[in-house]
Amino acid sequence: MRYLIYGAGAIGGAIGGRLFQHGHDVVLIARGDHLSALQSTGLVLKDPEMTVQLMIPTAPTAEAASPRDDDVVVLATKTQHSETLLADLATVAPSGIAVVCAQNGVENERLALRRFEQVYGMRVILAGTHLEPGVVEIATGPSSGILDIGRYPSGTDELAETVAADLRGSGFDAQVTPTVMAHKYLKLMSNVANAIEAACGTRLDHPVARELARAARAEAEACYEAAGIEVADQNEESERRRRRGLTQAVSGTVRLGGSSWQSLQRGTGNIEADWLNGEIVLLGRLHQVPTPVNARLQAVANRMARQGAEPGSMTAEELAAGLL
Fold it and tell me: Considering only the top CATH level, what class is 2-178?
């Protein structure tokens, strides 16, 4: 079985790198300067203990990777890019190819299921960083991260078991779950604070930032209750995060921020807030639940991305003005 990693950044690079490092057939699909670096010098994969350089096969497009029936496509891009990439994949891949959505948010699986029969959700808890072409960091140990997989919308099968086993053998805490989306909705409750970290750079250690994050999560909880959405057990989640290990410095540098923070730091011009805070706003509008905090975070994060603002360029008080 071959893994096509569609989007070889912080998450895709970590997953693909570890799988390749442990003997699995992997192709990284990337673009731009990152692709050039991967092709010329390989993937530099760093963790708190060591740095390895991996010459993993790469491709600039799904077509160039020549997808096969028995491939597993791991979609590891931000949600705002999923529709275009899935459309491209559908033109060259068999409809029965397996697509695993290793992404934040809960919309990617729906997008994939419109075009592919075998769709899997993957709940990702992985302290990955990608700020430099050709370089990906994993800032935890001994486990590289938590990667739970299940069929979408629910259930499990032999392929999910095989993928989970491959991931466990490659240094991840990976389990198969028939209710993977309940785990992804739980993850979304923490992801609503991504925009705060991106805007304020506080990692939620400022009291106003903490209160803003609490209010955003409370809105998410209210929306879930109104919509009848099942959420995984928080206590079990906390225990598995504890077993994963603490975030540690890599090459002497402490990890500064998560995925949204990194989008601003890299100046990508876009950010995933529409699919994180925006998901809560959407649920609120569908079920008549007010979501002013998430609406503010969505709007501010999008504006900062469009304007090329630096992460941490707002104060928590500015971000929370009129809300708390």
Answer: alpha beta
